[in-house]
């Protein structure tokens, strides 16, 4: 690594650099030699280092800290340092070093599968508050033993990044209901946050209490306009909470929502509550909703459709409803509601294995033809009780539409 670093130092005008050394086992010395050399590239402003699974360890981070602090002109930094045996001490050292990079505006750190723990995550994020120009932060703490305490305190640490507008946060390790609730409350302190991505996927068991608490916290992020939330496989059941999603409707300025909550137990009651919440999100223009495998029946889907009718600004809609017990009644109820959306231009519907037959499928597709401004249609009806004859009719009907500029039909 010393040879590579020394060679790069001679590139006097180098401003953008991307190095992929993934799994090259450069070790702590190789990493520190490389960073020390790069610190001498005085014009470097954009740096991407992919050094996952390289056996860097704490020693590599500690020995490189002073060199990292010397990246005076760096405005964009991507560090992929997953699976490198970095613990809380290493995370603190990294954060302290980065706090000296005062011109940083965009920072992405992937710490997947290390051992930073709750304290290490907190120390790292607290140190970043000194990067006063930081507006975009993407950080992954998955498989780091963050737990409920770490998740709850992260938001308060990040709230000190006063110019933070865009945040992507990936968490793992069973943060549980208390962790999700605490995270929502703490993120409410991030006053300027406008774009938020939260990935708290399976393995966290946040349950209904965690979801409800998370939304109640996010409802206080008054500038939030774009929200992506991944809560797949988290033991979420509407039977455990009477107002599972109600606080979602209080995020007043939301224009984009990507909500992935498949592989849970939401049921009709939960989906009805979700529809009511979405009815209050009147600024929504793009909605992606994944409710696959959630024990949803006809009534739940009809209630969801009724709620969406109030989202009058919706122009782009993508619904995943596969592996639910929706049937003909549910899909037709959804269709009648959706055709009231005069402004929808792009519609994607993933409806695999929802127990509909020839009559339901053909009637549903006929309803879709009533969209006045629909330009792009993607519909997947695979694995239902639809005959070959009706399948051909559905495909033919969609393909003949002159209004559609793009159409993808799977039956």
TrEMBL record:
GO terms for molecular function: GTPase activator activity; small GTPase binding. The chain crosses the membrane at residues 361-383. Gene3D superfamilies: Ribonuclease Inhibitor. Keywords: GTPase activation, Leucine-rich repeat, Membrane, Repeat, Transmembrane, Transmembrane helix. The keyword Membrane applies. It holds the Pfam family LRR_6. InterPro entries: Leu-rich_rpt, Leu-rich_rpt_Cys-con_subtyp, LRR_dom_sf, RanGap. GO terms for cellular component: cytosol; nucleus; perinuclear region of cytoplasm. SUPFAM superfamilies: RNI-like. The keyword Lyase does not apply. SMART domains: LRR_CC, LRR_RI. One of its GO terms (biological process) is nucleocytoplasmic transport. This is Cyclic nucleotide-binding domain protein. It comes from Tetrahymena thermophila (strain SB210).
